[in-house]
Amino acid sequence: MAADSLPRTVLGLGDPADPAVAARRRAADAARGLFDALVSSGASPEILDEAARELDRLASVLEPDGRTSRYDGTGGLDFEGGGNTVVFETHPVVGPGNPMAAPVRIEHTDEGVVGTATYDQRFEGIPGCVHGGLLAAAFDVVLGGSAARAGHPIVTGTLTVRYRRPTPIHTELRFDGRLERVEGRQVFSSARVRAGGEVTAEAEAVFVTVDRERFRGD
Q: What's the pLDDT score for residue 12?
């Protein structure tokens, strides 16, 4: 099956005009600022203990509305209508409502999938550089988005990353992914990431199609 003839899928995020979406994103942005301050802080033990007590208090406020899965109450992933906004809002890599995410911003184009992200010191591995495992996670999303253009539910089978040179933090990165081919239940895709136009890593993956029921939520 030729890649050019395959249908496109869209990674949808919530409407920022929705009060619930906007509030979650404000809270997530505030948490990112907190994580940044905590990772970078040289504060005294007394100040850190004070911060810990306040964070415990805030956690107790949020816990009563907690869920055991991001999919709870969502119905799972929708591979037909693209109604995946609730799930992707809290995605660990691309979710603007998830304070652990950078997040990577994904766009589907005629050529494939483009992802952009800027990692700060929270994601630093060796001095001044993004931890390689975080790049692998971003590649998994970009490659998966590319493979999803085949129109099937998929899970990652294998993911191979070649790190060509260190990838800097505090620099906008561009990920480019494309669907390569489909062979039976296997879907092949490839991607690369650039910093300032220079390729710092490349990746390829094989995804395996699975039954749609595997992605159903409660």
A: 67
Reported as a single tens digit per residue, the pLDDT across 158-189 is 999 999 999 999 999 999 999 999 999 999 99
Residue 11 confidence (pLDDT): 57
Residue 60 belongs to a domain: no
- Identify the CATH number of the domain in which residue 174 sits: 3.10.129.10
190 part of a folded domain: yes
Amino acid identity, residue 129?
Answer: C
Burial annotation 77-103 (CB, 10 A radius, 16+ → b, else e): bebeeeebbbbbbbbebbbbbbbebbb
Q: What is the pTM of this model?
A: 0.86
Domain total in the chain: 1
- Residue whose structure tokens are 């998929």: 154
CA 179, CA 147: separation in Å to the nearest integer? 5
Going from the C-alpha of 193 to that of each of 39, 179, 198, 204, the distances in angstroms are 26, 16, 8, 12
Residue 85 lies in a domain: yes
Quote the domain boundaries for residue 86: 3-14+69-215
Distant-in-sequence, close-in-space partners of 116: CB < 8 Å, separation ≥ 6:
104, 105, 107, 172, 173, 174, 175
Strand order in the sheet with 113-118: 105-108, 113-118, 172-183, 186-195, 198-209, 154-163
Domain assignment present for residue 201? The answer is yes
